[in-house]
């Protein structure tokens, strides 16, 4: 993964495949800490000016604001996370589905753009047998880079078992 958006934009099928693959066997408070810490490590390696947030069942389990991030990143996190909570899938995928229909989330969702943002960076915490129970969100990079950072962290987290 790179921190820029120079690679090809993923198709809806690729985004849906990410969600099928990135299902966790469980998700405890300790898992949130481990995943959040992994994300912080990846972001620090890249000097990424991001804020990171993990929510489960309405409770914030992890939050970090790295150098260069701002309060605006926290506002974006909240808006992107609401999309995951509403649609049950990645915020980037929601936006891509609207774009595939020739429109935008802002024009067609009928949701307040001050409260919801279908921009990349929030990904569902999907647990085997339970479904979507929360979201892991990054804000501070271009939207596709935010999305890719979360996906990379989830892939590594699953590999670590």
From TrEMBL:
It comes from the Bacteria. SUPFAM superfamilies: GlcG-like. It holds the Pfam family HbpS-like. Belongs to the UPF0303 family. HAMAP family: UPF0303. This is UPF0303 protein ACFYNZ_19020. It comes from Streptomyces kebangsaanensis.
